[in-house]
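Human: Note token order:
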Amino acid sequence: EDPVAVPHLIQALLKDEDTVVQASAIGALARMGLASVDPLLAVLASSEASESNKGHAAWGLAFIGAKAKDRLYPAYNSDSPEVRAAVVGAIAKVAEENRDDTQALDLLVNALDDSVADVRSEAAAVLGNLKYQPAVPALLKLLEHPQGETRKSAALSLMRIGDCSSIVPLQTALERESEPNIK
């Protein structure tokens, strides 16, 4: 867990073709905690990193979770949608571990208004998994979003939360939905 190894582990993650080496590198980076946060955020923001590398980096940040929350909150302001989506996933761990962390829960609800569908969908999924009742009004609003995947994510989240006030809006959204895969 020596922070001196971080750049070498990042290189192994990004450049080694052996998937076992990549997985081992991300495991070591995740165990290092704070020393790995900024390099993992850089991987997520990199146009040169593969989707697999970015998935590993997002997992690493989620594993680090609450230990890195002071670095994760400002990272949500990144121009990179991959960074924002990963931050939502990592902040979910913070909210899961501490349901009184209003900053984490507020970030997750605010992420429902993100300009990128993947970030909105990640936030909706997380809020549904947390069964976070205060998110219901924002999720109901998303049932009318122009992008189908956003509507689908909102509906699934509302179903997970299980608030009875969502039944009629969900039925209305179902009747109104024109995309078969969203229905």
Residues 152 and 182 are 6 Å apart (CA to CA).
